[in-house]
Amino acid sequence: VCDTARGETTCNNCGLVIEEYMVDMGPEWRTYTAEDRKNRSRVGSPISYAIHDKGLSTMICRGNRDAKGRKLSLRRRIEVYRLRKWQKRTRIRNIRERTLVRALSALNRLVSQLGIPRSIKEEAAIIYRRAWDNGLSRGIAMEILVAAALYTACRTRRIPRTLDEIAEKAHISKKQLGQWFRRLVRKMKISIPLCEPMDFISRFSTELKLSGKVAGRAIELLEDAKEEGITTGKVPTGLAATALYIAGILENERRTQREISRVGQVTEVTVRNRYKEFVENLEIEVMP
DNA sequence: AAGACGAAAGTGGTTGA
DNA sequence: TCAACAACTTTCGTCTT
What is the distance of C-alpha A14 from the center of its chain? Predict the structure, then answer.
């Protein structure tokens, strides 16, 4: 299923799978029985990242003595000093890089799960690095910062995912994600375009297998609704979903309220309320 | 049997004193 | 910091297809 509405090719079927195998080369838990094999799931970054240098990083002790306790010559002392310095530097670099590797692998996982285009992933990675450079990463779980960077990237490129969707896949709370999103925007002076209901139309209509005709009609409806001033303060996903619902009825591609509410991530009641407002204000005749 | 409808009570976030 | 508030959710009984 390809969505080329914005010049992005998001392939939800093959792209997903290929991406996953390309980016995440970590091993899965070994399984022994057929039952295990059925149940096994991907378990995140391979453990080797976490213990990558365990036992390998060496400290060079202070005190300029050799193994037998003799004082070192001046020449040796200078050499040991230099070694110590480089030891420190490379260790710091390794920690940085290791975290970065883990963060990027988490990002890849999220992106595959959500079917997000590659360009947005790159954007998210850049935002993540900038956040890191600005010292925003201190004291915060890497997963949260990654998720916030991804959400920010989606918003700036106007291919929004909801906070809920990203929070769920990243296994963090919506509240935390929202907080860090705002923090990123504020501290890094990123300008975010307003979230418009229309931004959701192409994704939702694909998900509902609705034709382009319906999607176009839905966008018209949203434009009219905006002019009538009945959209302010309403959840954009609910508006987009309802517009598709009505457009579907008008174009004879009806979907049930349940389906509509599911893709719009609102309740049927909300769809009904929006529906009523649309019909009352937009001179729509939906009686067959 | 499934879908649509709407009332009523509850929830979490924003706003304004 | 607190209360008021609008939007949205959950739940549930009733009507329609």
Answer: 19
Question: Any idea which residue has 């295990």 for tokens?
Answer: A36
Nearest residue, CA→C1' of B12? A175
Cβ-in-10-Å burial (0-12, 13-18, 19+) of A223 comes to middle
pLDDT tens for chain A, 288 residues long, are 333 333 333 344 333 333 332 333 333 344 444 444 444 444 433 333 323 333 344 555 556 666 566 666 777 778 777 777 777 777 666 777 788 888 988 998 999 999 998 889 888 988 998 998 898 988 889 999 999 999 999 999 999 899 999 999 999 999 999 999 999 998 998 888 888 999 999 999 999 999 999 999 999 999 999 999 899 989 999 999 999 999 999 999 999 999 999 999 999 999 999 999 999 888 766 555
Q: Which bases of chain C are under 7 A from a protein CB atom?
A: 6-11
Residue A96: helix, strand or coil by DSSP?
Answer: helix
At residue A226, φ and ψ (nearest 5 deg) are -65, -45
By the 8 A CB rule, do A222 and A198 touch?
yes
Residue–nucleotide distance: A175 CA to C2 C1' (Å): 21
Distance between the alpha carbon (CA) of A108 and the C1' atom of C7, Å:
35
Contacts of A182 (CB under 8 A, 6+ apart): none
What does the block give as tokens for A167? 């929070």
* Distances A121 to A18, A111, A128 between C-alpha atoms, Å: 15, 7, 10
Protein side of the strand C interface (CB < 7 A) = A 232-235, 238, 265-270, 273-274
Which amino acid is located at A215 in the chain?
A: A
